[in-house]
Amino acid sequence: MAVMAYNDQLRSLLADVDCVLAFDTAADFLGLTNGGYRPAAQIFVNKRQNVEGTEQFVVPSLEALECEERGGLLCTTVNRTIVDLLEQNGDEQIITESLANYYDEHHGSFEGLKIPKHLWQRFEKYKKWAQEYYEE
Predict the structure, then answer these.
(1) What is the pLDDT of residue 128?
(2) CA 68, CA 50: separation in Å to the nearest integer?
(3) Rounded CA gap, 135 and 12, in Å?
(4) Using CA atoms, how far apart are residues 32 and 97, in angstroms rounded to an integer?
(5) CA 12 to CA 65: how far, in whole Å?
(6) What DSSP designation does 136 have?
(7) Residue 33: what are its φ and ψ, rounded to 5°?
(8) Which is the most buried residue in 27, 60, 72, 102, by most CB within 10 A?
(9) Backbone angles phi, psi at 134, to 5 degrees
(10) Cα 52 vs. chain centroid, distance in angstroms?
């Protein structure tokens, strides 16, 4: 019996869907998180589509999103994904892991991230947690 990896599962589910991976799903797909169970794939769409197993967020235009193709799917960029996670103020574990993995991958630096001013206070909160995440 073959084991289907999460990214393969996403590619199969979204193969013919006009969408961009969003939020937690984007963070997972980009390797910013350490994985976990997600009940539905979060995607940006420009109109609702009949795709079971997805949580859809309608945006005026997919082209206006900061995204890139990775592994056969469109996904928000690393920076956009982190900003979206902060903006959404969702799962603290996902935000902290995403920042911790970014920090680790960039040799102990958050340089390169462009965080909007209105999210600085939230970023500073998670930044501290991220810097200590792999020390414990």
Answers:
(1) 95
(2) 24
(3) 37
(4) 7
(5) 23
(6) -
(7) -105, 170
(8) 27
(9) -95, 5
(10) 20
Contact 94, 84 (CB under 8 A): no
**Secondary structure, 3-state, 17-83:** CCCEECHHHHHHHCCCCCCCCCCCEEEEECCCCCCCCEEEEECCCCCCCCEEEECCEEEECHHHHHH
* Site of tokens 């206006």: 64
Q: Are 95 and 36 in contact (CB under 8 A)?
A: no
Q: How far, in Å, CA of 88 to CA of 78, rounded?
A: 15
Q: What pLDDT digit, counting tens, does each position of 12-66 carry?
A: 889 889 999 999 999 999 999 988 788 899 999 999 999 999 999 999 999 999 9
Residue 50 tokens, joined: 């009949």
In 10 A of CB 46, how many CB atoms? Answer: 16
Question: What is the model's pLDDT at position 35?
Answer: 81
Print burial letters for 88-124: b (CB count within 10 Å at least 16), e (below 16). eeebeebbbbbbbbbbeeeeeeeeebebeeebeeebe
The two tokens of residue 113 are 């991230």
